[in-house]
Design goal:
This protein is α/β, with parallel strands linked by helices and 468 residues long. The chain has a domain of 234 residues. The protein is built from 17 helices and 9 strands. Strands 3-2-1-4-7-5-8 form a 7-stranded mixed beta sheet, with helices on both faces. A two-stranded parallel ribbon has the order 6-9. The protein is globular and about 70 Å long. It starts with a helix and ends in a 26-residue tail after the last helix. The C terminus is likely disordered.
Length: 468
């Protein structure tokens, strides 16, 4: 038994060192690509339609549309389609502007300033969640913008895109990949007020680790394993499952139907799953878009429970992919699905298993493996992550007149709670288990709620509500 605990501690130490190296290598790659000089957009650059699903987003939409208007001023083929929800009108107090009211007013203002129809607002009449809004918007594209050889991007309502998006998109789209991801990084603006709890400060670093050390790196490895680029067996063993990330997700328009459109409750994961198992080429941009971080552990756990549900639906995505054309072998598809399910199991059970192994070693007075793991995962990795996160935020270029700076968490609190973050994140799948059990016992449907944005990235609205 002691041998098993020592092996687990050694594996945890090795993983921490690997993640540290992955962060450093990913940042180096991102910096090299981002430093390439910006060029005028080639005439053959595909058009891009940005879809922003919005529900109760009055506080954040003004800033978001302002940034996309700044991009559109230098990007003739950029269009923005905001899809609101009709049901919001019944949930909004009388006399208060709905998100649709705010967006239509702002769309008219920006279109007048730009001298062309860049912004369009449509209202989804149903009761579905974000994926249903996106599918409604995609269906509306055929009438609003005739089918073309272009791309559709999904950004969160609170997203701030990097000003280099146009040139980086043009470069990535030249190879016609099925999907292009601009990584998403949660961060508060430097001007924001309010204290951040120690646990959520550590979560800020953990989110950066996921963004750069996992999501960005996986897409790079997936491209390295592309069909025909490596020996088939080596590629099948090394190819990772790519997870689509909902803000900054860019999909070739003709591929949306091929993957069965967007899926509830977490549209982005299924896009990445299905394109990965189809063997489609996926690219990543060397910049991030910044969104508002989760405000509390409770909000994060609720959001992560829907992510866990989507990850558990990998079996459904596998069956879909197996029934449709693919560039991968059946074995390659099975390996990808197995990896995704193993990731989910490690996410939910890993902290408990590693905690038990560490406790066992301490009881047996075998301190060296525990100390080595603590130094690697609790000191080296978070210190490197903190420094690299600061550099990525310094490198970020916001479009619009008020680029500003972005806030780092308190270093002592972030580093001190970093090792706890796997257990904190595991609250998501555990909450899903509790909610699913309760739903089964009561005979009710399992429902997920949206993450509410409090407007930390939005300008001061003197009370939090924008009035038309």
């Amino acid at each position: 038994m002691i041998r098993a605990s020592r092996l687990l501690a050694a594996a945890y130490t090795a993983r921490a060192l690997y993640m540290t190296a992955s962060l450093a290598l990913s940042y180096r790659s991102m910096r090299v690509e981002a430093d390439r000089p910006e060029e005028e957009l080639p005439e053959e650059t595909p058009g891009l339609t940005v879809i922003i699903p919005a529900l109760r987003e009055q506080a954040v939409m003004p800033r978001s549309l302002e940034h996309f208007a700044a991009l559109a001023a230098r990007w003739p083929t950029l269009r923005v389609l905001v899809v609101t929800a009709a049901r919001e009108a019944s949930e909004t107090p009388s006399g208060t502007s709905t998100t649709e009211d705010v967006c239509r007013r702002l769309a008219d203002q920006h279109n007048t300033t730009l001298g062309r129809e860049v912004f369009t607002v449509v209202s989804y009449p149903g009761g579905g969640r974000r994926a249903s809004q996106l599918n409604y918007a995609v269906a509306a594209l055929d009438d609003l913008f005739p089918p073309a050889d272009d791309y559709v991007a999904v950004f969160d309502a609170d997203a701030v895109p990097d000003a280099r998006l146009a040139s980086q998109f043009a470069r990535a789209a030249h190879g016609r990949p099925a999907m292009i991801q601009q990584p998403m990084l949660p961060a508060f603006p430097g001007s924001s007020s309010g204290r951040r709890s120690a646990v959520m400060s550590g979560q800020d670093l953990a989110a950066f680790r996921r963004t750069l050390g996992i999501e960005y790196r996986r897409i790079q490895v997936a491209r390295w394993c592309g069909p025909g680029r490596r020996p088939r067996l080596l590629a099948a063993l090394a190819r990772p499952m790519v997870y689509g990330v909902g803000s900054g997700l860019i999909v070739r328009r003709d591929k949306i139907e091929d993957i069965g459109y967007f899926q509830e409750p977490h549209d982005d994961l299924a896009v990445g799953h299905r394109l990965s198992m189809a063997g489609e080429p996926i690219a990543v941009l060397p910049s991030v878009n910044i969104v508002e971080p989760y405000q509390s552990v409770q909000a994060m756990a609720r959001a992560f429970s829907s992510v866990a549900f989507a990850n558990a639906a990998t079996r459904h995505d596998y069956r879909f992919a197996a029934a449709h054309p693919t560039r991968l072998s059946a074995t390659g598809q099975r390996l990808l699905a197995a990896r995704a399910l193993a990731d989910g199991a490690a996410w939910a059970l890993g902290p408990a298993v590693m905690g038990a192994a560490a406790a066992h070693l301490v009881v047996k007075r075998r301190f060296k493996p525990v100390v080595a793991a603590a130094v690697a995962a609790g000191l080296i990795e978070p210190v490197v992550a903190y420094r690299l996160r600061g550099r990525v935020l310094d490198d970020f270029r916001a479009s619009g007149p008020d680029g500003g700076t972005w806030r780092q968490p308190a270093p002592a609190a972030a580093i001190a709670t970093y090792m706890l973050q796997p257990a904190v994140s595991a609250l998501g799948p555990w909450l899903l288990g509790v909610r699913a059990s309760a739903a089964r016992l009561t005979g009710r449907d399992l429902r997920f709620t949206k993450t509410e944005h409090l407007g930390e990235i939005a300008p001061d609205t003197r009370g939090g509500t924008v009035h038309g």
